[in-house]
Specification:
3-stranded mixed β-sheet
Length: 313
Amino acid sequence: MEGENHSRVPEFILLGLSDQSEQERLMFLVFLNMYLITVLGNLFIILAIKTDSRLHTPMYFFLINLSLVDICFTTTTIPKMLFNYISGNKTILYISCMAQVFLFSWFVGLDSIILASMAYDRYLAICVPLHYTMVMTPRVCVFLVAMCWLWTCVNGLTHTILLTQLSFCGHTEIPHFFCDLNVMIRLACSDSFINNLVIYIMGGLTALIPFVGILISYIHIFVAVLRIPSAQGKWKAFSTCGSHLIVVCLFYGTIIGVYFSPTSTHTAQQDTVSAVMYTVVTPMMNPFIYSLRNKDMKRALRMLFIQKSGLSL
């Protein structure tokens, strides 16, 4: 009974990125603009793909899902942080904190596996183009994405249920701007061996294995591109993968550094900075990376803006 009371603390305190009011006002404006850019940018990507029939291909189907996940991903953490800054109240209810852990674990896993699916799509398109249309059928694409959503939901639910079994013994101050799973486990006063073990097992299935799959796909792609005789053909093949590679490096570089390095090698401040990178910066950069480096996306966005302008007139 005592453990039950300890684990069910009524609320936590999110210490955030700063405890100085002047800095908090500045960060409110910065993160509000970044959040709006993220949401609007990814919405434009989704609308542009939906309205241009020439983009109804597997690659852009995966990109729609990636953009949708990025919107959900940032919405899980940023609005609460902005509310805390503007209200001056940094508390978060226990149940809200657990919901944040679940949603964050769900969407970060989704990002990882969808990026791997996109790499597999590029591998098929470049390395085995004659079989591409037979393998990447609409049914296969929908099945892959559905499995991504289902598996990562189970992943998030598993972490959250295990976290609710821990006791916090009155430790309510979270040195972060959201309820991050790793930080919550370190905050607990009860044995968290199972929680850490599951992080490595489930994390391997949702992050490391997809990352290895991406590496293998791009090794095959690189070898295949080198065999293309013309420089123009090589550039065209590489250009279809460049945007994806940049996003992969941004996302996995920080994720692996935070969740798969020994906890003794990094501080809470380093974790927070890394978290800002993959929760805010990367989702915000994705629309720019995919639109500025892709002629088809630039054309679709141009047509979307022309259509919207025509309707408004």
